[in-house]
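Dear Dr. H.,

I hope your travels went smoothly. While you were away I took the liberty of generating a structure for the chain from your last submission, since the lab meeting agenda had it listed for discussion. I wanted you to have the full record in hand beforehand rather than looking at slides cold. The sequence, exactly as received, is reproduced here:
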Amino acid sequence: MRQEGQNIFAAVLERVHAANNALIASGTLPSGLDQSRVLVEPPRDAGHGDMATNVAMVLAKDAGRKPRDLAEAISAQLRTDPLFDKVEIAGPGFINLTLNRTVWVDALRTAIAAGRDFGRSALGRREKVNVEYVSANPTGPMHVGHGRGAVFGDALANLLAFAGYDVTREYYINDAGAQVDVLARSAYLRYREALGEDIGAIPEGLYPGDYLMPVGAALAAEHGDALKDMAEPDRLRIVRDKTIAMMMDQIRDDLAALNVRHEVFFSERSLADDNAVQATIDDLRDKGLVYEGRLPPPKGQPVEDWEDREQTLFRATAFGDDVDRPLLKSDGSYTYFASDIAYHRSKFARGFRHMIDVWGADHGGYVKRAQAAVTAVSGGEADLDVKIVQLVKLLRAGEPVKMSKRAGEFVTLREVVDEVGRDAVRFMMLYRKNDAVLDFDLAKVIEQSRDNPVFYVQYGHARGQSVFRNAREVVPDLPADPAARAAFLVRAPLERLDHEEEISLMKKIAAYPRTLEAAAIAHEPHRVAFFLYELASQFHALWTHGNNAPYLRFIIFDDPQITMARLALVQGVVTVLASGLALLGVEAPEEMR
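The corresponding predicted structure, in token form, is as follows:
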């Protein structure tokens, strides 16, 4: 079965549908059956075959048949297909499938021929997706927690693009509101310090970090002492704009060190400047979704934005939120949520029907209202998936490293990248599900051992490259160029690969496209990192087995044909490792140093 880069599980599902359709055509099954819930998945126990399907279980009721009886009829159809070596019924009606070995041979050949495009799909049908991530307040350098959101968002965007979506990477600059006024006042102190004043201790409530000293120096160089004679509103506007610009430059540099990029930097302040917030409120009011009223007192835990007064409220409860949400503060200014609604309305206006926001752990309580807002402003045409990225506990040899952004004593993201390297930061940030707290140990992530996943996976790729270098004694015409080597090895006699571990490795390679599609649908790039570790583990295990059993070595000096076949297997492994590492933004090294 040639797959042409196809998800092999989807290909088998097509065979199951074909068996159902044959039974429908013969009158054994009624027409019009809904087959959308039919699945083909790996069995829980690998001893039960290569795949399992629930087809009889989900169709039995509508077909008016007992699940086991229906499974017998479907299995009889599937047994006529040479794709399957074994079709067995298990339990109340599950069907276990064992595929012919030629399937795995074809899958390996497909992987080699496709190269880095193996697993690429049209799943997304070029639908536009906006992935907003990082969006850290421009009040200082980025810390490790910001880095986790940056890496997660960037890898997710890579994954979605590979799955056929039209992805836009966006950063929302929080350059409006009280925190940037505090930032401006903090920078103004550093400006006075740069002019030679003794400013003493930084007052409580301002940002004390030394990172604002270059801003103060730049303001002093540009304006001399002229700012001191200005009215405070004019002075703060100049200081604020300069400070935000310099902080954003630093943030972009920090992101670049992680190889994270954004196509769009969207200013929160632009919403007010363009009257977008008021326009959004007016639009929602016209739809009957904004009213003047009072919020009931909160039950249990206090609601942060509850005030016992008549106020302008958004009917968030009409869309599943717990309470309606204020849009104006008591001083008449817009709430942050009002700006957030306008921001997501702008995404919808820009053509995005799918939105993904990557937020920090402290925003978990904000999800329902944001999703309510997107439903409201889009008339139900758009969807919002919020991915919460949990905290990072920074350790050094097991001991906590203290961080405090407001105290100015934190370890910056850039310092961590400079110490352990971009690859270690990116891979380890993704080697845990985003909603789980991550322990990031600066000592362990640079260990050269199996316990360090990034090393183990990169070592798998480098080990594969070393096999190619050593194989030229047996296969002297093996090309050094990767593309030429793949074209050469795709013609190898892969039928010679018949050992259990070799077949298992081929099966793992064949599962890669399905893993990517599942990860893209679930918005979970960590699945790719897990898969790569498992693939590398199987590859290293086969290498070790070859050390103990010489007939299993990749290079057999008196048998060029089996050597060619095993080199092709190695090519499949390095192809998938390189592809997956690229999606994670991690280098696939030729050799380890």
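Two observations you may find useful: Residues 448-584 form a domain with the Isoleucyl-tRNA Synthetase; Domain 1 fold (CATH 1.10.730.10). The chain is about 50% helix and 10% strand.

With kind regards,
E. W.
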